[in-house]
Amino acid sequence: MDSTGSLAAKLLSATLMFDQTSLAALEALAANSDRRILRRGEVLVREGDRSDRFFVVLSGRFTVHREGVGETVAEIGQGELVGEIGFFAALPRIATVVAARDSIVLEIRDDQFERAAKALPSLRQSVTTFLARRFAMQSPAPRQNKQPCKLRTLAIVPAGRSRISPDFISQLRAAFSADKRAVFLTRRELEDRFAGLPIDDQPVLDWLNHLEGKADIIVYIADDDPSEWTRVCIRQADNVLLFADASDPADLSSCEALALAIHAPSNLRLVLVHPKRTSTVSGTAAWLDARPGVRQHHHVSLEDGLDVERLVRFIAGEARGFVAAGGGSLGCAHIGVYRAFVEAGASFDYLGGTSSGAAMMAGFARGLDADAIDRGTHLIFVQSRAFRRLTLPQYALLDHKVLDRTLQAEYGDVLIEDLWLPFFALSTNLSTRRAHVHRRGKLWQAVRASGSIPGVLPPFFTVEGDMLVDGAIMNNLPLEQMKELKTGPNVVASLGSHGPRKHHIDYDSIPGASELAVRMLTPFGRASLPKVPSMIQVITASVLAHRPEEVMLDERDILVSPAISSAIGFMDWSQHSELYVEAYEWTKRWIMERLRDNDSRLLRILGIPAAPGVKQAAASDLDRSAL
Fold it and tell me: Buried-most residue among 265, 402, 505, 507 (CB within 10 A)?
């Protein structure tokens, strides 16, 4: 039995829940089945065709498409079955399946399966159980919970006029942990192993298939030119890193043009490498403008390795996010929550929020610490009284000019795309009636737009003509937007609710215009006015009233709702420091309690192994054994 047949049998056994005693029969099925190689873009099955066979993915990746649905329905990776539902239910193909990269499948025809079923009587029952389990898991699920297929191959391709840095590759190797078995491949290594053979010849592909079964991830390092090896790297890759020295010109290289032509935008990452960590970064916009299809970019300093470790978490689907809810002045609690997590050992890879939550996360993304953000809050809202400057109610109740000036002074003219730490702010686009995710442009403007409470502040208008207001109208806790940007665990900081707040006010006691004017002229008259919430308080409460019934957490997310005194109002910024400190102390206790309980979600956020396990081969050791 060759290694391919043995691998196929083991995959069938694991998928259909067989024990080891059935492995010999499954190996016989694999040995008598056909192996097919599909190049990237080749159709494996087509919707509506007859289902006379099914497939086991030995290596590679496939995407699933349905007629009339614009986006990819699902992804299929190593060890999964293709076409089994139509085959066993005697139905036509329900979808079209296309190779997302060069792939190998085991093709099992109906006559081959019938012979195997006679030799292995439990085969039909196992298939029935498997299909029942598959149908049970296919109940409708929220779109944001759809997880991508595990990344198995990565290509690193030079961008602009850059050459791939050996220092970067060395740090990338080191950043893959010991239990993440990574193999790095170059053209020279394959030529040394397969002298005289074309790089995409059958024996080479067989060996890569075998290697993929042993490694967690294969990293293909492309040439500096669009050679045949570079084409193989791009074609074999699930994801592509476009490597660039940030100091080089930003023009598009022929290598990355090839990658952009082959891969969907969601599969591409631009990595801008810097020799040292400076206080500010510039010039990112030119790189992104030249590559409109690239959805994600990363700034990587080679000085300390921290950014490379963050990049590896993104690659592995383990990037850690912090999502901060809006809530007016109560957003100061986020400063304390974030500080407590960082002091406990958390290192966050993506920050995002709505309204005041966006403002606090912007400070951390800017590189400020908790105390500096608290001082900035005091300057903006207490010392400058930015939310206490009434104006003629033509455009809004408050004069926005002071707020704009203080925000610009606090965040400077820094662009979001130039931040070392990825960040987004959420606002509501009244022009398109959709959520607006700020990932480029001036940081202070994103904060200003995200916190534009309708009626209290004028909307923020973009150069494209969009009218933006507070993001809380659309989504006060933008976990969905975070999940669209990256995969991995998240801390979700909600400011919570203390339940319904009653206002015991005699409605008839609210004075009309003339009576109010008279009573406002004397101290006694003002003191006797009913304690009705102000216009600003009513508007703010209205904005925050629309909240999703349930935050769509998955098994890796953790919700934090610090205790907040009900005496602090949404617009009362005078107690910002007290709120920050109280949330900090509360979160420290909260973290300690869950550490004592060995909370797996918290351990994942802190990067602590949940339980000791057998140490696997280091990446460097696997490199040597494989090559």
Answer: 402
* Residue 147 pLDDT greater than 60, yes or no: no
What are the helix (H) ranges across 350-400?
356-365, 370-377
Directed axis angle between helix 443-450 and helix 356-365, to 10°? 160
pTM of this prediction?
Answer: 0.82
**pLDDT of amino acid 462:** 93
Sign of CA dihedral 271, 277, 281, 286: negative
Percent of the chain as helix, strand, coil, to the nearest 5: 40, 20, 40
CA atoms within 13 A on the CB side of 335: 25
- What is the 3-state secondary structure of 123-147? HHHHHHHHHHHHHHCCCCCCHHHCC
Helix (H) or strand (E) holding 272: strand 268-274
Query: What is the CB neighbour count within 10 angstroms for residue 129?
Result: 13
- How many C-beta atoms surround the C-beta of residue 106 within 10 A? 23
Instruction: Classify the phi-psi angles of 345: left when phi > 0, otherwise alpha if psi is within -120 to 50, otherwise beta.
Output: left
Radius of gyration of the chain (CA): 29
Q: Which residues contact 282 (CB under 8 A, 6 or more apart)?
A: 418
List of residues 6+ apart from 438 with CB closer than 8 A: 416, 424, 425, 426, 427, 445, 446, 449, 450
442-472: pLDDT as tens digits: 999 999 999 998 888 899 999 999 999 999 8
Token pair of 577 as six digits: 């420091």
d(CA 109, CA 576): 69
Q: Count of CB atoms within 10 A of residue 501's CB?
A: 9
Residues 6+ apart with CB under 8 A from 440: 285, 288, 415, 416, 417
